[in-house]
């Protein structure tokens, strides 16, 4: 097969999937691109949401399948978590069960936040309520289900700063974009 034929096959494969990807992107994000600040908030939020979503998913899977790490890496997940639970004041397997429940709820909340970011891209003002609500609920569940000591000692500075940055970006976006729309509407009404 010649180089030209290989190139043609690659182009045909690319052309086969490109229209479907474009249709899917337009279905999810719409045809119109938002302003620059909205794009910055969206992509930053997408990155942070992905990190938290993937982390919660991996953690949940490991908590559900602790024997996998024990067999392959000789790491006793149950013993480590049980020990940390006793240090935090939990009894028996309570901490393990709460941690498992927390990560499952985290997966659901980060999916909701991701949907909120899709609506943010589509310029829906109420998307900020979904995103900020998800962030506050995630932090609250962590604090009340696992304890304030867990939040202070076991949550990394990166996690705390990421949540704060995400919260502030969306809050600023909500007020800046919301006020800009109000000013534009008032200007149109005056004319």
Automatic annotation (TrEMBL):
<protein>
    <submittedName>
        <fullName>Uncharacterized protein</fullName>
    </submittedName>
</protein>
<keyword id="KW-0812">Transmembrane</keyword>
<feature type="transmembrane region" description="Helical">
    <location>
        <begin position="128"/>
        <end position="151"/>
    </location>
</feature>
<feature type="transmembrane region" description="Helical">
    <location>
        <begin position="40"/>
        <end position="63"/>
    </location>
</feature>
<feature type="transmembrane region" description="Helical">
    <location>
        <begin position="157"/>
        <end position="177"/>
    </location>
</feature>
<keyword id="KW-0472">Membrane</keyword>
<keyword id="KW-1133">Transmembrane helix</keyword>
<feature type="transmembrane region" description="Helical">
    <location>
        <begin position="102"/>
        <end position="121"/>
    </location>
</feature>
